[in-house]
Prior knowledge:
Number of helices of chain B: 5
CATH superfamily of the domain at 41-111 in chain B: AhpD-like
Radius of gyration of chain B: 19 Å
Number of helices of chain A: 14
CATH architecture of chain A: Alpha-Beta Barrel
Number of strands of chain A: 8
Strand content of chain B: under 5%
Order of helices and strands of chain A: HHEHEHEHHEHHEHEHHHEEHH
CATH architecture of the domain at 41-111 in chain B: Up-down Bundle
Strand content of chain A: 5-15%
Structural class of chain A: alpha/beta
Largest sheet of chain A: 8 strands, mixed
Order of helices and strands of chain B: HHHHH
CATH topology of chain A: TIM Barrel
Distance between the termini of chain A: 34 Å
CATH class of the domain at 41-111 in chain B: Mainly Alpha
Largest sheet of chain B: none
Low-confidence stretches of chain A: none
Mean pLDDT of chain B: 95
Oligomer: heterodimer
CATH topology of the domain at 41-111 in chain B: AhpD-like
Helix content of chain B: 55-70%
Number of strands of chain B: 0
Low-confidence stretches of chain B: none
Helix content of chain A: 25-40%
Mean pLDDT of chain A: 95
Shape of chain A: globular
Amino acid sequence: MATKSLLKRESELANTQRQxxxxxxxxxxxxxxxxxxxxxxxxxxFPLQPKKIEILQINVGYMCNQVCAHCHVDAGPDRKEIMTRxxxxxxxxxxxxxxxxTLDLTGGAPEMNPNFRWFVEEASKIGVKxxxxxxxxxxxxxxxxxYDLPEFFKKHNVHVVSSMPHWTRGKTDKQRGDGVFDKSIKxxxxxxxxxxxxxxxxxxxxxxxxxxxxxxxxxxxxxEKDFKKALVEDFGIQFHHLFAITNxxxxxxxxxxxxxxxxxxxMYSLVEAFNPAAVANVMCTNTVSxxxxxWLYDCDFNxxxxxxxxxxxxxxxxxxxxxxxxxxxxxxxxCFGCTAGAGSSCQGTVA
Amino acid sequence: MDKxxxxxxxxxxFGSIAEWSKxxxxxxxxxxxxxxxxxxxxxxxxxxxxxxxxxxxxxPYCIDAYTQDGLQRGITKEEMMEAIHVGAAIKGGATLVHxxxxxxxxxxxxx
Lengths: 351, 111
């Protein structure tokens, strides 16, 4: 398993332009498969436009203690892009005036940003209805300075959303690195111990499931049932919901698909599973994604492809919700990942 | 005609068999869909049975489809391999149990 990001390895796929070329060439250029634009034209859903902004998703940096094989961020210990306190302040100014009910912090490992705790404290003072931190779990056990994170999350009523690709060690470690499973189990037990994930607890703990390979996620509810049964029986762990998320063909997952000769078959699977009902609720229609340096994107995936919003307003410093809502969402073939089957978003299925 | 009897892309064309016999094709796929719905058995259990039968029938399309289906359902490779052994055991047993017929015949014919 690679221990460096594509950027550090100087892979050609670290170049977002190259990724976009791959997604537009080959089977899509030859017409063997329809493009995303032509597919949503068939159902009169083109151009894709946002509805009311409900979720502000802020990526506070690409640095991470893990180098997961499927990571769409290309995150890792070697990534130095970190949100500054100044940009965080600009985000706080927006959080105060936004109509969005959910604040969603992600990374990398957001906890590795040196101003993470200050940011959480300030944001929680403003009072957000649903304040999510996407934690990779192992960070809680990575270093003594993170051991108290469960208590810190509890103090600020943070909704913890954590990745867990499988309830077995083998599948988890293959995707996320050796030892990740055991550390994740320990971290989940610690979150449970302070009250997270317990059935009637207001301390929300949800898990994110990504398939560990070139296949789509199965039924979200059935997987949640299997996860709950296995985690409680084997480790006494409880959690609230499981979000099944499809791997999008960008960044490190695209690199894996090409290297393993699965790219074309995977794109076929996504296109064949296209669901117009998922298009109607796809997350870019209610989310704005903010990068570590304050740029605005339709979603976290467009952020990683460096496709900034098609709006006069492109930066958090000039944020204007009304103007932002009046835009067309930028699409490419990676969007098939969010519209396959029951759909996929950072909150799980959408259809 | 292709130079090979099997082409992985043909799996995606399975539905087209209904084009040349609409009613029977549609009835088959309706039945097929119903069989795999949750019933007294879970879809997960049904997927493992399908995988085992796919191997005893040595159907490459079915092996492709139900390996993928198993992965999507979170079924582990250990569970998949065990299911195939169940199929193999029945297949081997079915051969060997006929040995009793051979023994009966030998016993009848030999002095």
